Backbone:
């Protein structure tokens, strides 16, 4: 299971700062998060950057391992 860490508005929308998700690839993981947390997290995910072990990712076919860490970073205000 991959660990997903949520920051700022993503944590608020998910109602948690982190959770474990069983998914084979990035697309499945994001679909599972949308299903679990509903429309507000889906909206935030659409605006967010996803980091996989510290690297920006966007390919839904990206394979995930059980020890992978993904960070969901929504846009931040300010500079």
Residues:
């Amino acid at each position: 299971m991959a660990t997903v860490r949520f920051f700022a508005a993503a944590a608020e929308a998910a109602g948690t700062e982190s959770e474990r998700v069983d998914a084979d690839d990035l697309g499945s993981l994001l679909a599972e998060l949308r299903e679990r947390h509903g429309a507000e997290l889906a909206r935030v995910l659409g605006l967010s950057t996803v980091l996989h072990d510290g690297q920006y990712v966007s390919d839904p076919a990206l394979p995930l391992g059980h020890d992978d860490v993904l960070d969901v970073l929504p846009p931040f205000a300010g500079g």
